[in-house]
Write a structure and sequence with these properties.
By secondary structure, the chain is an alpha/beta fold. It has one domain: Rossmann fold (3-Layer(aba) Sandwich), CATH 3.40.50. Helices cover 42% and strands 19% of the residues. It contains 6 helices and 6 strands. Strands 2-1-3-4-5-6 form a 6-stranded parallel β-sheet, sandwiched between helices. Strand 1, helix 1 and strand 2 form a beta-alpha-beta unit. The chain is globular. The termini are close together.
C-alpha cells in the first residue's frame, strides 16, 4: 500500500504540535508524510476571489506531489488557513480513489470552505475547540452531517487546541487529537 499524507499548515511558517501529532500518527500507520510549503501572499481578510491565485498556486504544488506516484491512499491534514486552501481547491484536485481529510480547527464559518469541504465527499475527521473563534457549531454540524464525518470537539480549546492557562488540559487535548487520528487513519 502506498499512502501519502499531506500536511497543509495554518499559515506560511506555522507548524505546531497540532500538525505534528497527526503527521506522526500517519507515519505510524505507514504513510509517506510531506509538508506542503506555503509562501507569503495570503490575504487573511480577503475573500475567495482575493486569494484565488494564492489558492491555485498551492493547489498546483499539491497536485505535483500527488502526481509523483500512484498512491493507493491520500490523507490531508489541514489546519486553519490550510482548511481555507483545501476548501477552495480540494474538489478540483485529481486524487486517488481513497482520500481522507483531517480538518483541524476549520474555518467553516466561511461559505467557500464549508461548501468546498462538502463538495469533496471525502471521509473526514473534523477537530474543533469549543473556545476557538472560528468554531461555529451549526456550520460544523452541516459539514459533519453532509460528509458523515467524525467530529472531535475539545471543550475549552482555543484555535491552537490549547486550553488557556492549563498545560495539563492542553496535553490532554493533544492526546485526544492523537487518539482520534489513530482511530481515523487505518
Amino acid at each position: 500500500m502506498t499512502h501519502l499524507g499531506l500536511v497543509i499548515p495554518g499559515g506560511p511558517f506555522f507548524l505546531s504540535a497540532v500538525l505534528r501529532i497527526p503527521a506522526v500518527a500517519l507515519q505510524q500507520r505507514g504513510a509517506d508524510v510531506r509538508d506542503v510549503p506555503l509562501s507569503q501572499g495570503f490575504n487573511m481578510s480577503g475573500s475567495l476571489d482575493d486569494n484565488r491565485d494564492y489558492f491555485d498556486g498551492v493547489g498546483q504544488q499539491i497536485q505535483e506531489i500527488i502526481s509523483e506516484r500512484d498512491w493507493s491512499q491520500l490523507t490531508f491534514v489541514a489546519k486553519s488557513v490550510g482548511t481555507m486552501i483545501l476548501g477552495a481547491i480540494g474538489a478540483r484536485l485529481s486524487v486517488p480513489g481513497s482520500v481522507n481529510a483531517l480538518w483541524l480547527t476549520p474555518t467553516f464559518p466561511l461559505d467557500y470552505v464549508r461548501d468546498g469541504a462538502v463538495a469533496t465527499g471525502w471521509r473526514s475527521l473534523i477537530v474543533s475547540g469549543s473556545a476557538d473563534h472560528w468554531y461555529h457549531a451549526a456550520r460544523t454540524t452541516e459539514v459533519v452531517e453532509a460528509l458523515g464525518a467524525d467530529h472531535l470537539l475539545i471543550d475549552g480549546a482555543e484555535h491552537n487546541l490549547e486550553i488557556a492557562g492549563d498545560v495539563g488540559a492542553t496535553l490532554g487535548a493533544l492526546e485526544q487529537l492523537a487518539t482520534a487520528t489513530l482511530s481515523f487513519v487505518k
